[in-house]
Amino acid sequence: MQKSECHGGIQLRNRKAGSCDQRTSSSIQIKHRTTIQQSNSSSSTSSPETARKLHPRPSDKLNPKTINPFGEQSRAPSAFAAIYSKGGIPCRLVHGSVKHRLQWECPPENLPFDPLLITLAEGLRETKHPYTFVSKEGFRELLLVQGAPEKAVPLLPRLIPVLKAALVHLDDEVFARGLNALVQLSVVVGPSLNDHLKHLLTSLSKRLRDKKFKEPITSALQKLEQHGGNGSLIVIKSKIPTYCSICC
User: Fold this and answer.
1) Domain harbouring 174, CATH code
2) Would you say residue 203 lies in a domain?
3) Segments forming the whole domain that contains residue 193
4) pLDDT of residue 247
5) pTM of this prediction?
6) d(CA 237, CA 222)
7) 42 vs 96 pLDDT, higher one
8) Where is this region: Disordered (predicted)?
């Protein structure tokens, strides 16, 4: 009887010892996995790319493109810029110490207005140099050549939408270039512009609310009336009732 009790006690102690060893082994495995996870986490956060994301440099905020110069595609050039870079505008910009000028590859009077005049008008919406100067000056000089009225009048149905796009542009300088181009065109084509004025005057009416444009727009309207005659006055008054005729 005593031997049986003793034998049972030994088995109980062995089971307790076995379960203790299993718990110890499980604890060691858990600690080992935790150590590996912490190590992986530490190594991932210690990489330069991750550290840069967690702690961006001041220069990254000032110039975001320096973060990854290959991550974003550069902005595609505008249609006018693409044509100019390929030599589609037969002139080049000559930089002067005080004033810039255009040098044409051949006399402007020998150049076809279609599509050159329309392309230059499209360039009026540019906001970067040298495209702003080339389009503005090229449009002006082309309209000064001999025979310009005969060449420009047939292009009016295609020119007007392009000029309208400049006149509705949010950039003030683009609008100013469009306004000047409209006046230059009216000098050349005269009353032929009257049938198209209604498409342009709405944007002028809206800009009249801006004090800094009130004077230049009023001056432009007077020149449109001067070169367009009574027909232009009727159109102007229908769109801008507050306009005062130069004949008053």
Assistant:
1) 1.25.40
2) yes
3) 79-239
4) 79
5) 0.70
6) 12
7) 96
8) 1-71
